[in-house]
Write a structure and sequence with these properties.
Herpes Virus-1, 6 helices, elongated, mainly alpha, Znf_RING, ubiquitin protein ligase activity, 56% helix, 190 residues
């Protein structure tokens, strides 16, 4: 097969797969929930797209895995915004060090950012429960419902991690306020 044939074949595959296949996992789009990336409008399974973004923690650098266009926003099929969430549960040591470093700053807004993140997670968990009920009512395939359950489990784990980080941060701030800085210096972060 020549380069031209391969390019034509690849182009034809992209055209046909854009409409019916998630180009990340190569499974049919209708098997799971779908998201649309703005501005390129490429569609992927929600879990596939979110997993694609997670290693790159800065949303401003997220790009479409198909065309590399910068992703301004991720929306669901019904047009509602899908939140790209920092994987707190995978970065516990890093987050603890960062929080400890910034705990001394008077204008530090880390706690508010974390509480906002927790609020978004709680909102997403509630939405997933509603989405699951609707999927069952519409008799979606089991894989579709399992996809929702897996995202819910991931968000529950993330919620626990962020709650632990909030508690940790509040304890650090309390120690600083009470003058127990030497305890902070002796604290071991894994």
């Amino acid at each position: 097969m020549s380069f031209g044939d391969a390019a034509a074949s690849s182009s034809a595959m992209e055209d046909s797969s854009d409409a019916s296949v998630c180009t990340i996992c190569l499974d049919a789009l209708d098997r799971k929930r779908i998201v649309i990336l703005m501005h390129c409008k490429h569609q992927f399974h929600r879990t596939c797209a979110l997993e694609w973004f997670e290693p790159n923690k800065d949303p401003s650098t997220h790009s479409c895995c198909l065309c590399r266009a910068t992703v301004a926003e991720v929306v669901s099929e019904n047009g509602s915004r899908v939140c790209r969430m920092f994987p707190f549960e995978e970065e516990e040591v890093y987050m603890k060090r960062l929080l400890r470093l910034h705990a001394y700053e008077a204008d530090d807004d880390n706690i508010e950012v974390m509480k906002k993140g927790r609020g978004q997670i709680l909102k997403d968990l509630k939405n997933l429960e509603t989405e699951k009920e609707l999927a069952k009512k519409e008799r979606k395939c089991e894989e579709y419902i399992i996809d929702i359950d897996e995202e819910r489990a991931k968000l529950e784990k993330r919620k626990c991690a962020i709650e632990m980080l909030i508690t940790y941060y509040e304890e650090i701030r309390a120690a600083i306020s009470s003058g127990c800085v030497e305890l902070l210096n002796d604290a071991v972060i894994l």
